[in-house]
Amino acid sequence: MNLIEEFNSYRAQMNEKIMDSDNKVIKRFFNLDTNTYAEGALDVKTKEMIGLACSMVLRCDDCIKYHLGKCHEVGLTKTEIFEVFSIATLIGGSIVIPHLRRAVEYWELLEQEGGK
Fold first, then answer.
1. Signal peptide: which range, if any (predicted)?
2. By CB atoms within 10 Å of each CB, which of 34, 83, 84, 100 scores lowest?
3. Is the distance from CB of 111 to CB of 3 less than 8 angstroms?
4. Which phi and psi (to 5°) does residue 40 adopt?
5. What pLDDT, in 10s, does the model give residues 28-62?
């Protein structure tokens, strides 16, 4: 199993367990997240770029992988991704660089799998 499959499988498995707990607050939070990234005044592509930049600044590798996957799904190019990376690095500073390295690695895997 490669890194992308491993991440997506683990995320799906654990989300299912979390949802099976039937906790109203957690379900509402997950729903809020889903609705936040839906098409609205901003298109999905823009929202995913914002989510990716914020995730990098907050240094959440799982969030970075998730948003990279979504950015790939909505058709961002390598050039666009690196502009998002540059914004995140500027805002977050040098502490973002280790996450930037892993993000580049994950993006390359997405490109290999998706043929971009």
1. none
2. 34
3. no
4. -155, -140
5. 999 999 999 999 999 999 999 999 999 999 999 99
